[in-house]
Amino acid sequence: MFVADYNMIYQLVATFLTGIIIKLLDDYMDEELPSKLLSPETRNGILPYSLIIFSLAAALNLTYTVTLFSGAYVLGMFFHMQQKLPTGLTGLQESLIILFINLLIFPFAAVLTSLLVILFIQSIDDLLDRQWDKRMGHHNLANQFGMGEMIILSAILAVLLMMLDLKKFVFVNLCFFVINKMYKRFLLS
Amino acid sequence: MQFGYVLIAILINLLVGYAIGRQIGLQEGYQRGLSFGPLKMREHTYLSGKCPICSKEN
Asked: What ipTM is given for this predicted complex?
């Protein structure tokens, strides 16, 4: 089915590195960076190291890195639709611009599957963090639409992604699982 | 592939039905709760001799 060559390893490593960057960005936006990263020695290193890791991921596999990161950005801004951002545009406008640029540069299938897989990860994450987000007042799809609806939506997205791009679906889920485990073990303890 | 389309169609039907049913249930439940609430508070006052909101003795 798949030709096992170095391409797959590059895709997996690029997905893993992009996942780390997305997790860091998410925590930065929610102002929930772990205290180990906010110490005086490490605080100034977050931005340069994030950019280095992103450039390495892009060098390994440009399509996966940029589409996954843009997908995370688009979906993140989509839920702050009316909020005015530093560029002067609303969240919705920025999302549409980024989406349009991605569609100009990358194949439609790559952009679509990246968006869907990020939405799948977002819904699983929201299902797991329902109670925490309710207490902290963060936006949460499971709290907004209901747990049952999100479970069925996750199942629909999983089936759709398995039909469209099984490799990306497996890689992203694997990386999500590993990154969460590593995060809890090394940064939150 | 066709199995995938059929499965997605079934899941979409399930999602729409569940979402509509839950919304109707929430509205009906809220209306019933509005009429049940005062009765329950009066029962509590009668049994305990205190107001459930301000804890003032009867």
From this structure: 0.78
C-alpha separations of A12 from A56, A162, A177 in Å: 13, 17, 13
- Contact between chains at A160 and B7 (C-beta distance less than 8 A): no
Residues in chain B: 58
Q: Give me the tens of pLDDT residue by residue for chain A, a chain 189 residues long.
A: 555 678 899 999 999 999 999 998 888 877 777 766 667 777 778 888 999 999 999 999 999 999 999 999 998 877 766 666 777 778 888 888 999 999 999 999 999 999 999 999 999 999 998 888 888 888 888 888 899 999 999 999 999 999 999 999 999 999 999 999 998 888 776
CB atoms A152 and B18 under 8 Å:
yes
**Cβ contact, residue pair B15, A146, below 8 Å:** no
Window 71-130 of A: residues touching B by CB (8 A cutoff) are none
With vertex at residue A25, the alpha carbon angle to CA A93 and CA A76, rounded to the nearest 5 degrees, is 35
Phi, psi of B50 (to 5 degrees): -130, 150
**For A129-139, b where at least 16 C-beta lie within 10 A, e where not — what string?**
ebeebeeeeee
- DSSP H helix total and E strand total for chain B: 1, 0
With an 8 Å Cβ cutoff, is A136 touching chain B? no
Q: Is the minimum CB–CB distance between A158 and chain B shorter than 8 Å?
A: no
Domain assignment of residue B28, given as a range: 1-58
